[in-house]
Amino acid sequence: MLTVQRTADGGPEVLHLMETDDEQPGPGEVALDVAATAVNRADLLQRQGHYPPPPGVTEVIGLECSGTVAAVGEGVTDWKVGDEACALLAGGGYASRVVCPVGQLMPLPPGTDLVTAAALPETACTVWSNVFMVAGLQAGDIFLVHGGAGGIGTMAIQVAAAAGARVITTAGSAEKLALCRELGAAVTIDYHEQDFVEEVKAATDGHGADVILDNMGAKYLGRNVSALATEGRLVVIGMQGGSRGELDLGKLLVKRGAVIATSLRGRPADEKARICASVAEHVWPLVGAGEVRPIIERTMPLTDVVAAHELMESGAHSGKIVLTL
Ligand SMILES: NC(=O)c1ccc[n+]([C@@H]2O[C@H](COP(=O)([O-])OP(=O)(O)OC[C@H]3O[C@@H](n4cnc5c(N)ncnc54)[C@H](OP(=O)(O)O)[C@@H]3O)[C@@H](O)[C@H]2O)c1
């Protein structure tokens, strides 16, 4: 099979296509012939050597894919050879074949083709598990998501708006702020020019955000706590602004607030299966109804993986970058 191998820790140029032996599914696993995969920010960290795969997981990068079932392992009864699916992966998506636990397979969302479906598993599972299953966002809540024009952000805005929340988001350019409004954000904040704490307070009559989905970590910790509503939940999923910050517990205590930090990749297979089933039940119908639109900046062949990583690293993209086989 064709795989993208990392020949060293480093920049996009360390990625090379190579032939390796086909993977075979074990009990409870499925092999997919990959049609498409997509780039995630975590892939850049793994390439640089800062985000190794969990124990037992392939070194091949790639957290999501779509494809056709090529073989099923012992005990798999729900899927058969030839079925089309998309999958949440702990690794291995940058390849022509991947093996994963059967619980991480999902049907294609209604109305999507294989290429589009590759752009959805990682963002849908991250947003749904954190914003809804962990933080319990409800209709009528105020939801702040940082980086609204990115892969995670474009999904988060749409799913939260469809659920009846009032969405506030940050982004780094006028063009990206316009995209966020088009996707359903009621209030948009330019993170280069505006203070998001002041803007959130002004837009909510001082109430603040009931749920915050944060990609910045340490850099925004204090300000996120300031922007939280009473009993608000801050969910940190990224550390683009560092991992060590200062938390004013007094401020959090007065608000009876919560700070939660989570990672999807390292969760056990049964938890991922629960998340995938919940996404297929709750998010895929929104895609089918057109309430959640896959936002794809560019679709490129897997052979252009170096250029795809350069594009994500530049920060010029909105939404997802898809790689086809
Ligand atoms: N914990 C988990 O399980 C999990 C799972 C998936 C993703 N993540 C994390 O989620 C984050 C987004 O991932 P992605 O794949 O969607 O990457 P992405 O498409 O590259 O998005 C990165 C986002 O960061 C935004 N950003 C950069 N500087 C910012 C600032 N100062 N303030 C606010 N936003 C800023 C960018 O905004 P502009 O483009 O507008 O500049 C962009 O929207 C990453 O940190 C990733 O590691 C975590």
UniProtKB/TrEMBL annotation:
It comes from the Bacteria. SMART domains: PKS_ER. Residues 10-323 form the Enoyl reductase (ER) domain. Keywords: NADP, Oxidoreductase. InterPro entries: ADH-like_C, ADH-like_N, ER, GroES-like_sf, NAD(P)-bd_dom_sf, Quinone_OxRdtase_PIG3. PANTHER family: OS02G0805600 PROTEIN, QUINONE OXIDOREDUCTASE PIG3-RELATED. This is NAD(P)H-quinone oxidoreductase. It comes from Nocardioides nanhaiensis.
